[in-house]
Specification:
single chain; 688 residues; mainly alpha; ABC transporter involved in vitamin B12 uptake, BtuC; 2 domains; 29 helices; 74% helix; globular
Length: 688
């Protein structure tokens, strides 16, 4: 599943190229200057261009001068600095990895920095800005090292994005758990993670700027060696270039630049991906930009233009009082998500849609034994989940409650706990079945509702309804979740179907859509009061808190239909999962069958999200484990996968409710911690 994307070969620049490159650079300088001027004039205070000019020349009154000097100029300067730092970091990472999708986002650098700062925040220690930058640097560098080690430099575009996205999900889940457990110590950290260039004075900019200068000078010193890497490792060694040392140096310097930007403004998403790509397009026409030393300043200007442009557009389209609350990083993440999807549709995919696993044949005795063990586990976990929690009960209490003879306290506990247990069981089963269907139809071992953006679309639809119609009922939330999941799945499967559901394109488009939905959910969280950050974090962490039987009813109905359909069409599922030709030879309508199974998987995912929030990786782990246990016949895979999903989510919910009681963690956070290593293991195994 290798997708290689090497930078274009550099050629000696000609005079016309130098002239054109100089003109392009001058145009970028003018664009950035214009955006900076416009950005200074925007804000909530009634300080227009005339007052700004007076403030800059010292002729404004005290109030106007204070607004300009203390707020708007620092904001504009921070946008310039952050965009430049991220643009240069992305250039360095793409050059040393020979990967057009390498960036601080796709290498999980931002997620590593987020976790590092979160760990420091929970200790209650207040660090100065430069010390915080050091913590962010260590966390980001460690994450980048893991991603590059797992994906392999130059081993493939999609592998790097998959490894980075999976690790980012796991690290972010741990950080969000810290936010839920230590709300006072980490106050404001969630909002910071959305990325905002707003500043109070120039102190932060003045402290971070020297780090940017150090990173730029370091990259300029190793630029010639980095250029040699584009020729290939063997050719670079032949020229006397220490390949490993050059890569390590460039990655460290790029991480330093990214950590400096993250410390100043939080993660401003995808600038490090988009800016180098735009400059790479210019390099095809103006060959002078093909060298790292020449492209670094141009990429810095492009990154600054992207950040300032996003801030200007945001403040132009959104009323001033609301624009203040919207982080700039949300806007850049939306742009980056679109960019990632476009890149996915253009990259050549050399990996055909292969069967998920080798053909395994297990005996009937193995299947029956496995099923019996899983049923016993399910019963045991369900009983434990009902009895354990902030209040421990006995089986006799449950029997009395079922007969209507329980006391008021016991009745209250079970009235709130039983729906939670049912939501966890049914959501796990539904997500596992959805993952089984998607992997069979796409013949992609890495496909699952969360990775493909289906769960993100469902979460966006549900959150949008809850924020606009707080009185919406459970069926309404389920319907909104299905609509959101349907829209995201149409985008993902529609774009991926053009190449026959090739696994690289499918997953890459899914990651782009998932990124976009996450940005939109963050935007809704920031802009709405009824759905505040704490409640949103609880929802997005996959919590069953506060669920009632009416919330579970839509999920139970859809799951019953899904299991019945999967059982009735088990042979058709087997044929669809084989290849493109066999179903057609047997007279099966492949397109119609695929569409039906995908619609069912979307419906299952949407109702699971509506009932239990966003729970990731269950649709990946359960089908894989089922095929490993009982083979690839879907008559056996479906029941085993459903049982595994139910056990996994119910166990995760039980642990989240009991291990650190009375505090609680969402089941989605627990499954992310479990699923991330498994996902990375699959990547390593497929690489071998």
């Amino acid at each position: 599943m290798a997708v290689t994307a090497t930078p274009p070969a550099t050629r000696p620049p000609t005079a016309p190229s130098r002239t054109g490159a100089a003109a392009v650079t001058a145009a970028l300088v003018l664009l950035v200057a214009a955006l900076a001027v416009v950005d200074i004039t925007q804000g909530t205070a009634a300080v227009g261009a005339g007052e700004v000019l007076k403030a800059l020349t010292g002729r404004a009154d005290t109030a106007d001068a204070s607004v300009v000097v203390a707020s708007r100029l620092p904001r504009m300067t921070a946008g310039l600095l952050v965009g430049a730092l991220l643009g240069m970091a992305g250039t360095a990472l793409q050059a040393v990895s020979r990967n057009v999708l390498a960036s601080p986002d796709t290498l999980a650098v931002n997620a590593g920095s987020y976790l590092g700062l979160g760990l420091v925040a929970v200790t209650g220690v207040s660090l100065p800005l430069l010390a915080s930058s050091g913590v962010a640097f260590v966390g980001g560098l460690a994450a980048a090292a893991v991603v590059l080690g797992l994906s392999g430099l130059g081993a493939g575009t999609v592998r790097l994005v998959l490894a980075g996205s999976a690790l980012a999900l796991g690290l972010t889940a741990v950080t969000e758990a810290l936010l839920l457990l230590f709300p006072q110590e980490t106050q404001g950290l969630y909002r910071w993670n959305q990325g905002s260039i707003g500043q109070n004075g120039f102190d932060g900019v003045l402290q971070i700027a020297p780090l940017g200068v150090v990173g730029l000078l370091g990259l300029l010193l190793v630029a010639r060696r980095v250029d040699a890497l584009a020729l290939g490792d063997d050719a670079a060694r032949g020229l006397g270039v220490p390949v490993r040392a050059t890569r390590v140096t460039a990655v460290v310097l790029a991480t330093l630049l990214s950590a400096a930007a993250v410390t100043l403004a939080g993660p401003i998403g995808f600038v490090g991906l988009c800016a180098p790509a735009l400059v790479r397009g210019l390099a095809r026409r103006f060959h002078g930009f093909g060298r790292v030393r020449a492209s670094l300043p141009v990429t810095a200007l492009t990154g600054a233009a992207l950040v300032l442009g996003s801030d200007v557009v945001l403040r132009a389209l959104v009323p001033s009082d609301l624009a203040v609350a919207v982080p700039t990083g949300v806007v850049t993440s939306l742009l980056g998500a679109v960019f990632l999807v476009v890149m996915a549709t253009r990259l050549k995919d050399t990996a055909a849609a292969a069967a998920p696993d080798r053909l395994r044949i297990r005996s009937r005795a193995v299947f029956l034994t496995t099923t019996a063990v899983l049923v016993a586990l399910l019963v045991g976990v369900t009983v434990a989940a009902v009895l354990l929690g902030d209040s421990k009960l006995l089986l006799g209490d449950v029997v009395n409650w079922a007969q209507g003879r329980a006391g008021r306290t016991v009745a209250f506990v079970l009235d709130t706990r039983v729906p939670r247990v049912l939501a966890a069981l049914l959501a796990g089963a539904a997500l596992a079945l959805a993952g089984t269907l998607v992997q069979a139809v796409t013949r992609n071992p890495l496909a699952e509702p969360g990775v493909l953006g289906v769960s993100g679309g469902a979460a966006l639809g549900a959150v949008l309804l809850v924020t606009t119609v707080p009185s919406a009922g459970s069926w309404g939330v389920a319907g909104a979740a299905f609509l959101g999941a349907a829209i995201s799945s149409v985008v993902v499967f529609g774009l991926a179907a053009r190449g026959g559901f090739q696994q690289n394109r499918l997953v890459l488009v899914g990651i782009g859509v998932a990124t976009g939905t996450t940005a939109l959910v963050s935007l809704l969280i920031v802009l709405t009061d009824p759905f505040n950050a704490a409640k949103a974090l609880t929802w997005l962490s996959g919590s069953t808190y506060g669920r009632s039987l009416s919330d579970v009813a839509p999920l139970a109905a859809v799951l019953a239909v899904g299991v019945a359909v999967a059982a009735f069409t088990r042979v058709e599922l087997d044929l669809v999962s084989l290849d493109e030709d066999t179903p057609r030879l047997l007279g099966l309508g492949l397109a119609r069958g695929r569409l039906g199974f995908l619609l069912l998987s979307v419906l299952l995912s949407a109702t699971a999200v509506a009932a239990a929030g966003t729970i990731g990786f269950v649709g990946l782990v359960a089908p894989h484990a089922a095929r490993a246990l009982v083979g690839r016949q879907h008559a056996r895979v479906v029941p085993v996968s459903v049982l595994l999903g139910a056990v996994l989510v119910c166990t995760a919910d039980l642990l989240g409710r009991t291990v650190i009681a009375p505090a609680q963690l969402g089941a989605g956070l627990m499954t992310a911690v479990i699923g991330t290593p498994y996902f990375l293991h699959l990547l390593v195994r497929s690489r071998r």
